[in-house]
Specification:
4 helices; alpha+beta; Alpha-Beta Plaits; single chain; 4-stranded antiparallel β-sheet
Length: 158
């Protein structure tokens, strides 16, 4: 078995999976706390989408008023949360940050969770990255493009 720092070079990548899907309040609290920990260079979240309208059935097309679809603030950046949080991916530049993250999550996570090291972020440009942005000069956004989304975000903007 190889060490995760050998796989990814000088960074450590971490996957955090809560035992249940988390709503907007828990997501905001957890992500804001993780962003304040020194050594975290990238954060990505994944989970099922919260639909704008009912996608099928007799009420197809009726707007959905989901209280979890709202703007949250993480590290001073405001963005709209469009998913229920099911997985957090972190990239750490500091080996000591892993222990700090584990301790912090034990205090603030509202449910049980699993945490593991590995390789979770893309290191090279994907076809979706190129189709959305062209040539990417900032390596932090590699692999973070949602190919099904019609929205294009500048790094660090809403």
């Amino acid at each position: 078995m190889t060490n995760s720092t050998e796989i990814t070079g000088s960074t450590i990548q971490v996957e955090i999976i809560p035992q249940r899907l988390l709503g907007a309040d828990s997501t905001e609290r957890i992500l804001d706390t993780l962003s304040e920990i020194g050594g975290v260079t990238r954060i990505a979240i994944q989970g099922p989408r919260l639909p704008y309208t009912i996608p099928y059935g007799p009420a197809k097309g009726v707007p959905v008023n989901n209280p979890d679809r709202r703007e949250i603030t993480v590290g001073g950046i405001v963005f709209e949360l469009k998913i229920n949080l099911g997985r957090i991916l972190l990239e750490l530049g500091d080996k000591d940050a892993f222990g700090t993250i584990k301790e912090t999550l034990n205090e603030i996570m509202p449910c049980r969770f699993s945490i593991k090291r590995g390789k979770f972020f893309k290191e090279r440009m994907t076809t979706s990255d190129y189709a959305k942005y062209g040539v990417i000069k900032d390596k932090r956004v590699l692999g973070l493009v949602d190919p099904r989304s019609n929205e294009i975000y500048e790094l660090g903007s809403k």
